[in-house]
Amino acid sequence: MSEQHNDSEAAPRLRAAVAAAPMIDTVGELRALLEQLPDDMPLSLDDHHRALPGEPDQVHTIHPRLVAVVSGLATEAESKQPGLMLTQVYVPFPAKDEEQAAVASRDDLPAYGELPRAAYHLERGELRPGLKDVAEVLEELAHLVGEVAADFTEHDEDGSQLRVEAKRITHAAERVGKLADTVEEVAE
After folding, report:
1. Residue 74 region by backbone torsions, left for phi larger than 0, else alpha for psi between -120 and 50, else beta
2. Residue 177 pLDDT
3. End-to-end CA distance of the chain, in Å?
4. Which of 3, 32, 2, 36 is nearest to 17 (CA)?
């Protein structure tokens, strides 16, 4: 019973510690935040780097947030405890601290990498930007298959087969890129 009472007292303290650091720009700031949190608190990194669309001057920062971590899922020992998630985001620079903090705390921004950004756009029915990102991902795959992987097998049949597959992927990228320019946007 006293353990639950301690947990309920700790929750506001944890929320306050994380809320006091909406953006972390240095290792020292991260260390200072972690020192305020329990040693056994689960920590995770969100690999979806987010950026403001159309912002040319951006710097990256870390946005910490509390999340629920479940252990022993679907068992009698199932429990939920708070955990810390660190998300890398890109914020406009120069900008006031309050403006940067407001951007950093948003979780509706598209991911920074092409593949997760493609998923972000396509899941929302934003076909043109989503398909353009898919075409870029296909181009990168074609390069990996046709040049990087094929170089390891350049003097045998596997290398030539990999180059053929890379050309097919390149053609698919071109077709998807053309579709991105002509496809009708989904009305919201």
Report:
1. left
2. 92
3. 50
4. 36
| In the predicted structure, residue 12 carries a pLDDT above the cut 60 | yes
User: By C-alpha distance, which of 75, 72, 110, 73 is closest to 89?
Assistant: 110
Residue with tokens 């009472």: 5
SS3 assignment for 15-69:
HHHHHCCCCECCHHHHHHHHHCCCCCCCEEEEEEEECCCCCCCEEEEEEEEEEEE
Residue by residue, DSSP assigns the chain as: -HHHHHHHHHHHHHHHHHHT-S-B-SHHHHHHHHHTS-TT--EEEEEEEE--TT-SSEEEEEEEEEEEEEESTTSTT-EEEEEEEEEEEEEESS--HHHHHHHHT-S-SPBSSHHHHHHHHHHTT-HHHHHHHHHHHHHHHHHIIIIIIHHTTTTSHHHHHHHHHHHHHHHHHHHHHHHHHHPPPPP-
Q: Taking residues 50-67, report their average pLDDT.
A: 83
- For residue 92, list its beta bridge partners: 58
pLDDT digits (tens, 9 = 90+) for 152-172: 776 778 878 888 888 999 999
- The owner of tokens 């991260």 is 30
